[in-house]
Amino acid sequence: MPDFPSFDRRLFLASAAAMMPAVGMAQTGDRVVYRDPHAPIGERVRDLLGRMTLEEKAAQMRCMWLTKYQILDGGQFSPAKAQTVLAQGIGQIGSPGDTIGTPRSSKDYYRSPEETVDLVNAIQRHLTLHTRLGIPALCHEETAHGLKARDTTIFPIPPGLGSTWDLDLVEQAFAVAGREARLRGATVALSPVVDLARDPRYGRVEEFFGEDPWHVAHMGIAAVRGQQGHSRPLGKDKVFVTLKHFVHGAPQGGLNTAPADMSERTLREAFLVPFERIIRETDPAVIMPSYNELEGVPSHANVELLQHTGRERLGFKGAYFSDYGGVTNLVSDHRMAANNDDGAVLAITAGVDAEMPDGQAYARIPELVRSGRLSEAQIDRSVARILALKFEAGLFENPYIDKALAVHRVNTPTDIRLARTVAQKSIVLLKNDGVLPLDRHAPLKLAVIGPNAAEALLGGYSGVNARSIGILDGIRAAAGAGMTIGYAEGVRIVEPDPSGQHSNVRPLHFVDPAANVARIAEAVALAARSDMILLVVGDAPEITRESVARFAAGDRSTLGLFGDQDALVEAMIATGKPIVAVLINGRPLAVTRLAEKANALIEGWYLGQEGGHALADVVFGAINPGGKLAVTIPHGVGELPDFYDQHPSARLRAYVEGGPKPLFAFGHGLSYTSFAVSAPRLVNPQIAVGDTAVLDVDVANTGARAGDEVVQIYIRDDVSSVPRPVLELRAFQRVTLRQGETRTLRFALPPDALAFWNIAMNFVVEPGTFTIFAGPASDMLKSTRLTVI
Q1: Can you give the pTM of this predicted structure?
Q2: What's the DSSP call for residue 492?
Q3: Is 716 helix (H, G, I), strand (E, B) or coil?
Q4: Order of all β-strands in the sheet with 242-246
Q5: pLDDT tens digit string along 233-243?
Q6: CB contact at 8 A, 532 and 580
Q7: Domains and CATH numbers, the chain
């Protein structure tokens, strides 16, 4: 018997005893194969599928979210309600840690760990003991940068994770997220998001690792390996991953759910690359289609995308789970289906195996099969994929979770240290005239000013954690006894809730301009009596997020600082005091004035629960910053699109206003030391088609202290049968070097690093010359020439 904790063991024994050749089960005289943990998963699936009614099969393709299906009474699980609602079983439970739709305080968005465990165990106990076949449920949770629940470990948002350029560290962070999700009862993680951040107006870019296909692919691989493991079957501390979103592209106007218009070539050259590489290297369990149209067809009804591209060309073998409302949106948003029956037929025909969050359209599956609109064979294929996940996760052997472990093995001291390290390495020093680092022991009067200084802002799809540290508290904790710290809010970006907190799940409330004028005056007075300003500005969760309704917008038509922050910036500049500016934000911001006038500028993103400590570590020099931008930062919205890997003709002409040249280039990031990166040296400057190019790059720390550098390798196909990007990232490595240390890094570029979709849409390496680049950023490169024959 598996070595489960004693609490789980009792439940396991009760479940096993109750289900042995079960009440109501067909008696064949043979063993009940699906109950045999030693039988191959395929055999268990076939046996169970053969015992199921059409209604029971349909239930497996549905999800239960407590906003829709109330199985609670006074916030507690109700066996009586479950007897009706869960009579046929259920495929999965959506975000059991959420309290949406339950009679609780609006600010109490998450159940306590103990409440979550009790609820999950009660649901699983009911399903295993009080349904005909005893099929447990999958549970899914969000894990974009940590488990979205209470008292879990919260890491920097994905643009910050992408800015680390540290694959081992990202894998470690997602391993924590996966472990914590499994301890709270989840078996499916709704991450990683491997869309490309190609339009910073889009509020969901706070969920994306970056803009480059190769970089995002490797970040995604690290995220999958952290959560799902390096191989399958699934380990006890791992969860199945969900690649998202297939395929967002760059929606029109940067608006959520708007169509993504692109050529098939652009789709293959850019947006499909992360999915293809992750599928090939990690065998992800689930993919989630996107809300939007892709090449004119909504992804949830797109046979070409899900079947021909996803399964046949990319080799995806897992299950497609809908995005929340993605099937019913075929009726409400896309007007492609007249009703939910039509929506269900379209989605199932396209290959969507499960409908989330509540299975509203898939509830009609039995009738749709009986009327001939769907075949039972279609349903069986989807149910088989879902059951296979349940068997692989060991849910039939033990569907329960241990309360003590769910509380005490989450957000441990080791996890907190990791969150601080990840935050430190995600910070990007954009500009520094020498003012940083500050001496924390200096007798300095430091004015900490700005709307994002005090509150610990965590970004979208975050849990809550009372241990989270804001910038102000981090600075105060790290400053020496001789330093005086003053604080002024400066302005408010938007009004907080009555508790003084901001959240991405509440409507946007604009600020009274007169109140901000008074706050600016207070900040000016503080700055006047201080020696230096630490100005903390950026985004609020209410203005950079997934836009789900008109009252909860999250996409922007401009890229500057929102609200009255520019007035605060100008007032601080006018004081004449040195300014260290910090951006705490979810999207690239066109902060041209700060870039020009601030003495130092830091891109922090939303830094997670340890953000205040990590930022203080960098400001006071305990940590040497080494993060690099995984996105391009433009001067303004008029320069979009601004991603670095554009085709040769895209930047031949300038605007009347000048440029275009980015405010900060992809891959940019400074240090408190200096580095020299050599030109690449090819082991063989001439290779055959199909060979691997091998190159060496020297990187030397030429400054006065240890630090990190990210060596980046790019290629350019000098002449090709169709235009290719002027630069394409193909490898990178973050290294730590001591003062005066030199290291030689070796990189291998396999054939697919040089290949592309040629004029006949075949993926090939064309003979000819390639320019191979190495450097610390996309605009600071040295090169050599490779010939392919």
Answers
A1: 0.95
A2: -
A3: strand
A4: 242-246, 286-289, 319-320
A5: 999 999 999 99
A6: yes
A7: 6-21+33-408 (3.20.20.300), 427-651 (3.40.50.1700), 675-788 (2.60.40.10)
